[in-house]
Amino acid sequence: MSTPRGACPTLHEPMLTGDGLLVRLSPAGTGWRPAELSVLAEAAARFGSGMLEVTSRGNLQIRGLTSDSAAELAVDVEAASIPLRTGLAIDTGPLAGIDADEIADPLPLARDLKQAVEAAGLFARLAPKTSIVIDGGGALSMDDIIADVRLTADSERRGDWHVAVGGTARTARPLESVAEADAVSTVLALLEAIAANGKYARGRDLRDADLVGFVPKTPFVATARASTPVGRFPLNDARLATSFALPFGQVDADTLAAFCAAVAESGAAEIRLAPGRGLIVPGLDMAACSALESKAAALGFITDSDDPRLVIAACAGAPFCASAHFATRALGAEIARAAPELLAGRTLHISGCAKRCAEPPAPDLTILGADGGCLVLPGDGRTARPTNPVAPEEALAAVRRLADTELAHEEPAARNPQPAEI
Ligand code: SF4
């Protein structure tokens, strides 16, 4: 019943984690109605641990299920007719189609591509985690989302899309841009090339020989955009969206249900999940934004884009994961509260054990669970000098020592943690 290694957990194929089974869900369209997300929150309380997460890629996770309760959850969710994404993951960004700053609407292209992939029977021949990003160039950055194939709207030649394979906007291999009319066939050809390398091949594995007919290009430079889903965003119908991040991506079922009720009361029809562990509510006027932001702040959501918790990626940890040596998110909250200056321009990864779930790319600091407490290490810690574990209560002091010594010469550069999804 649980997913094989390398697969993505779904409603019907949950994944085994340290706190039981986990399902990962995405809306079939751009978002869910408040009542639909509320049903999922109630189901998480009834069948799981009552904790839900929004991941770094903007998917919803329900944790703490057993095989029996996961089956009951699936029945419950299907009975509620909640629209769920199936097939190839095509990410278009949380403001797709409504963003006032968007260069091109990625939704029609995403629809056409999904149909073409299904018609070609391609999904079954691709690695389960294969994903496409179609970035219309709106206010919220998709640059840190890893994709096998990525299309980014060309700001200079409207209607054209930059094409790249295997990575984030910075690391993917750029290819010649295509006109919108050719975009679907181009992505299909690239997916065929990936599939030809085997069932578990990915975009990053493509070699020159696989890309005959595709012209390599120098990377294009995207304009700077918001990297955290916190704040207000103007929409193309003169209304606004307001966006919140969940502390460490986590929320309990009652709090999420209360948020859904507040959104319904605001008159908004949709809640979108945002990469960077956020929730976006579009379709509001100024007064409704202010009212909802006050309620979200009272519920404990992050409403300030300078909140130091935004640069901490923490795995589930104790008490949610049996493998954890300490309470990762409690430690993250303590460091953010007591020493925000240590996090300025830095990213911190806190992992309850050596498995390193939720690891962001190139963290500046790592706290890793180990026998006897936790290891406080520079960078991702893999090449750090051996050190002794400290008790979790001593971790903050150890972070201070590290910042005063090994990290003192580094010039902090503001970055956003985009951890691996779990
Ligand atoms: S890294 Fe965290 S969530 Fe992953 S197994 Fe270890 S304690 Fe559990």
Using brief descriptors, characterize the structure shown.
single chain; 422 residues; alpha+beta; Sulfite Reductase Hemoprotein, domain 2; Sulfite Reductase Hemoprotein, domain 1; 3 domains; 8 helices; 18 strands; binds iron/sulfur cluster
Tell me what the structure shows.
The chain has three domains: 15-87 and 229-305, Alpha-Beta Complex (Sulfite Reductase Hemoprotein, domain 2), CATH 3.90.480; 95-211, Sulfite Reductase Hemoprotein, domain 1 (2-Layer Sandwich); 309-404, Sulfite Reductase Hemoprotein, domain 1, CATH 3.30.413.10. Helices cover 25% and strands 22% of the residues. It is built from eight helices and 18 strands. It binds iron/sulfur cluster (SF4). Iron/sulfur cluster (SF4) is lined by residues 18, 315-317, 321, 323-324, 351-353, 355-357, 369.
Q: What's the count of strands?
A: 18
How many distinct helices?
Answer: 8
Distance between the termini: 18 Å
Largest sheet entry: 5 strands, antiparallel
Provide the structure class.
alpha+beta
In the sheet with the most strands, the strands line up as 1-2-4-3-12
CATH C-level label of the largest domain: Alpha Beta
Ligand species: iron/sulfur cluster
Shape: globular
**SSE arrangement, N to C:** EEHEEHEHEEEEHEEEHEEHEHEEEH
Rg over alpha carbons: 21 Å
Helix share, percent: 10-25%
In percent, how much strand structure appears in the residues?
15-25%
